[in-house]
Amino acid sequence: MGGGLADTVTIMHLADVHLGAGQSVAAEDADAERLRSAVERAFARAIDDALTEAVQLVVIPGDLFDGAWADYRVALRAAEQMARLHEAGIPCAIVRGNHDAESQISGRTPWPDNVKVFDHRKPETWELENIGVAVHGQSFARRDVTENLAIGYPEPVPGLINIGLLHTALDGREGHSNYAPCRVDELVARGYDYWALGHVHSFECVHEAPWIVYPGNLQGRHARELGPKGYVLARFCGGDCTIEHRCSDVLRWAECVVEIGRLPDLDAVFDAAIDAVAAEMEQADGRDLAVRLRLRGSGPAAAEAHRDLDALREGLEIALAPLRTQSGVWLEKIKLERSSVEEPAVRMEEAAQVLEDFMQDSAPELLPELLQELEPMLRKLPARLARQAFDLDSEAWQADFYQELETLLSEAARPARGEGAA
After folding, report:
1. What is the number of structural domains in the chain?
2. Which of 97, 142, 277, 302 would you call most buried, defined as having the most Cβ atoms within 10 angstroms of its Cβ?
3. Per DSSP, what are the bridge partners of residue 291?
4. DSSP for 139-185, written as a single string
């Protein structure tokens, strides 16, 4: 880091915005539009914060866009947000990731002069001497970049704060394709002051001194991207750097697990669900909330719920109506989870539903890899599921999926209690 920098330099690090991606909650009319616009509204909120905090630089290491635009207005609205930074004299450095790689973007965004999009053919350096910063980066030329880009990054510029922008899975991150792989020690050895990473959708400080950071995505896009989402503010003063994660999401995704095994009836289930959702609303701090309810256990209430799923859904919607006067609350999905002593056919049906739910929430390019790894277990499922075409529209990959599915399939493969092995 350049010595003698008396003033604080504040950099906003955001990634994986996925402009152009919609939300996967079914809703009607105005509610549907509110949900679909969550990603763009979260991006606008981050730009609002950049102006309020008077940051000196915004960096975006990949996946600003979700892919080729179905609607060119997505690009125009992104340019409008950058124009707001331009008016405030704030530069913005961008590298393209796997979703918005050179080969994925057919159009060209009319960026204002404050925006620098790094070349995809080789690493380059953008020196901003007026704020004492040098930014190094390289965009993805195509979606599936499997070579180590970091080893070709330039040497640090003496006397300046050196920032590296990289869209990468490092040496592997569960749930994410292993794009632009590299090792942490390689990044440390490069001699930069801060590595702004993208690709992983959860906030993670990989290393300190130098900081190597994933900010996570700005806005959760479906029920597998739970909890707070946002960006990182990195503040450089003298030879020190501190970071702070800030929330920018306008819609919070939550999963509420309600134990119903000991509950006597549906009214008790509704009361328990209200309490669980109210607790999540408090955590969401006034944001819209999309909830996946997992009702778990066997007993009188569970039996009643299974007999009439429509009545269960309708009752839950009515029970949650008072909470909607406080903020937007949507039931994304209700999942009934029986105990392991249920009949094998029922357990098999539940396992199949887990697989289908996962596929609906996951990225199309991950499906072949998923099927190959799960092939031994998939033989126990109805063949139609392995052949069925699903509408896959996101990149999420949850580590607990394998454990959840394997547990259900293992239970399904066991003889029912009291039965002998065939």
Report:
1. 3
2. 97
3. 254, 331
4. --SSS---S--GGGPPPPPTTSEEEEEEE--TT-BTTB---S---HH
